[in-house]
Design a protein that fits this description.
alpha+beta, 4-stranded antiparallel β-sheet, Beta-Lactamase, Helix Hairpins, 5-stranded mixed β-sheet, 4 domains
Length: 431
């Protein structure tokens, strides 16, 4: 359990770090794209070098003009007096003569909102102007190298601090996890022990603590129930065994009541069979259930019981609106579920038995009513509470039917009526 929690927490930390590196990666892509974007316009130094290399008696000759036109750049050359002596595609808003303040302005900033780059010639200056909103000019042409190193060092410090904080938070969270989980781990280790200490049902893990406490309580109740059940089973088996022993103790073997011995052996066999079935139901795989017609199974039960008890009256009332309804089931277990109730009514009542099947509101309801004196309310309570104590003889078959119904995702209902016992099975139908 600890390893699972730690692994999950490590995954969270790894994901956070991965996200951080992913963001850094995106930032690097952003910088790279910006770097590539600036290549849309040629470097001013390259423009000047080309013009310088291809000048003749003038700078802005035809070859250089074609080059500048191709790059969408206009240019002017001014002499030492600030007068334009050469130009190419000069806009009208740019004046023809500049004073000292004009030169100081466009060398640092813009000329008529055009980003211009100035180069010194022997007899003056040459300016190359790019389109408006193409390049940005900063009001400085230097950067403090020490400041650059300082910023880089600060970035590394911040990254290191980030990892340190992640590690600190990791250690704190691990410590808190162990602090909160350790009592739960100890409780789980002792959940089936007599010295189990009830967990405090408060805090962030109160739901888990509550579940563990309930599991321990359920186990203790089960242990007590099993103890009582074993004592009850011993009593139920002891009585037929005593009768068998008494018969076998007769000196005259001709006086043996073999029919009585067979009946007692059958009682023991039925008790053990019921208990084995009760224990095995918990291990049945519902994935093997198939969609079958419950109507066919019920009819077979009724026919079999009438053949075994020809003098009894079992009235079958079919109220199904759809005779082709299906239910995901194990036919053998479903047969046993209905049979147990009818056998119980046949064994303990004298009157007629009604079996009604209906399907209101997309449900299947199987109802069995007899005309006996019902079942002791304590037995009904124990059946509903799944307590096997003292029901091995009176009610074990009903309890097995309840288990089978729940195995089929159904609901079980039992109650005493004035006319006798009323048992119902309710299932949701397959759409």
């Amino acid at each position: 359990m600890f390893d699972f929690i730690i692994k999950r927490f490590k995954k969270i930390v790894i994901r956070i770090l991965a996200l951080m590196f992913f963001l850094i990666f995106l930032f690097m892509i952003f910088l790279y794209l910006n770097y590539r974007l600036k290549d849309q316009y040629p470097n001013p130094d390259k423009i000047y070098s080309y013009v310088e290399d291809n000048k003749t008696s003038i700078y802005l000759n035809e070859k250089n003009k074609e080059f500048l036109k191709e790059k969408d750049i206009w240019a002017i050359r001014i002499n030492k007096n600030g007068k334009i002596v050469e130009s190419f595609n000069k806009p009208k808003e740019v004046k023809n003569k500049f004073d000292l303040t004009d030169v100081a302005g466009f060398t640092r900033y813009y000329l008529a909102d055009y980003p211009v780059f100035t180069y010194i010639l022997k007899d003056g200056l040459i300016l190359f102007a790019y389109p408006k909103n193409s390049l940005d000019k900063f009001p400085f042409n230097y950067y403090n190298f020490k400041n650059l190193l300082f910023n880089f060092e600060m970035f590394l410090v911040f990254v290191i601090l980030f990892f340190i904080f992640v590690y600190i938070f990791y250690r704190i969270d691990i410590k808190n996890i162990f602090k909160n989980i350790l009592p739960l781990q100890e409780a789980i280790d002792k959940i089936y022990e007599d010295d189990y200490e009830k967990l405090d049902e408060s805090g962030e893990l109160k739901d888990l603590a509550l579940s563990i406490n309930k599991a321990n309580e359920k186990y203790n109740n089960l242990k007590k129930s099993q103890s009582k059940w074993i004592r009850g089973l011993s009593h139920d088996v002891r009585t037929p065994l005593a009768k068998i022993s008494w018969e076998l103790s007769k000196k005259n073997k001709n006086d043996l009541d073999t029919r009585n011995i067979q009946d007692q052996v059958l009682k023991i066999s039925n008790i053990l069979e019921g208990l084995n079935l009760t224990m095995s139901l918990a291990n049945i795989d519902k994935e093997n259930f198939e969609s079958k017609s419950p109507l066919k199974v019920i009819r077979k039960v009724i026919v079999d019981k009438l053949n075994e008890n020809p003098k009894r009256e079992i009235i079958f009332e079919n109220r199904l609106r759809d005779p082709d309804i299906k239910l995901k089931m194990d036919p053998t277990l479903f047969y046993r579920m209905v049979e147990n109730i009818i056998k119980n009514s046949l064994a303990y009542t004298e009157g007629k038995i009604d079996l009604i099947i209906s399907n209101p509101d997309n449900q299947l309801i199987i109802r069995v009513l007899d005309q006996g004196c019902g079942v002791d309310e304590d037995i009904i309570k124990r059946i509903n509470d799944e307590d096997l104590t003292n029901i091995t003889r009176h009610g074990l078959g009903i309890f097995i039917s309840k288990q089978i119904a729940e195995l089929h995702d159904g609901k079980f209902s039992i109650e005493n009526k004035d006319q006798g016992l009323d048992v119902s099975f309710i299932f949701d139908l397959i759409n």
